[in-house]
Amino acid sequence: MSEEKTLFERLYEAGEENLTRLAKEILAHPTFAAAMEKAFRNAAATKGKIDRNMSTLLGIFNIPSKGDYTALLAKVEAIQGSLVNAHLKLDRILASQEQRAKSPSRKGGPRRSSTRPEGKPQSG
């Protein structure tokens, strides 16, 4: 059985080598290369037309297209970023309010003057 497998592998490799050589020869031929280029160009143009028509059809039936989904996703991400920024600002405001509530109030207490009464020198 291993001999058959080896023989099969040899045939496969020979076929692969021949196919690769054939593909190189065909692609090297300028007429074939020009025909393939034209076919790919036409296929890309056709795909563009199909995409536009499908988008129009989806619009008629009020079904969102992939472009609509992408635009909506961008808007949702922008709103999410704004919400994160608002959340951070709100956290800062709440933290500053908590800090003010913890610090003692100066309004009710006696005022301390930094100046000394006249006539008495400051000791330093």
Please write out the topology.
Layout: H1 2-28, H2 30-60, H3 66-102
Outline the structure in words.
The chain is mostly helical and about 120 residues long. It folds into two domains: about 10-65; about 65-100. Helix content is about 75%, strand content about 0%. The protein is elongated.
Major sheet size, sense and barrel closure? none
Q: What form results from the Cα inertia axes?
A: elongated
Number of strands: 0
- Total number of helical segments? 3
Uncertain parts? none
Mean pLDDT: 83
Label the structural class: mainly alpha
Radius of gyration: 40 Å
Strand content: under 5%
Query: How many discrete structural domains?
Result: 2
Task: Compute the separation of the termini in Å.
Answer: 107 Å
What is the helix fraction of residues, given as a range? over 70%
Order of helices and strands: HHH
Précis, in short:
By secondary structure, the protein is mainly α. The protein is built from 3 helices and no strands. It has 2 domains: 55 residues; 37 residues.
Quickly list its features:
124 residues; mainly alpha
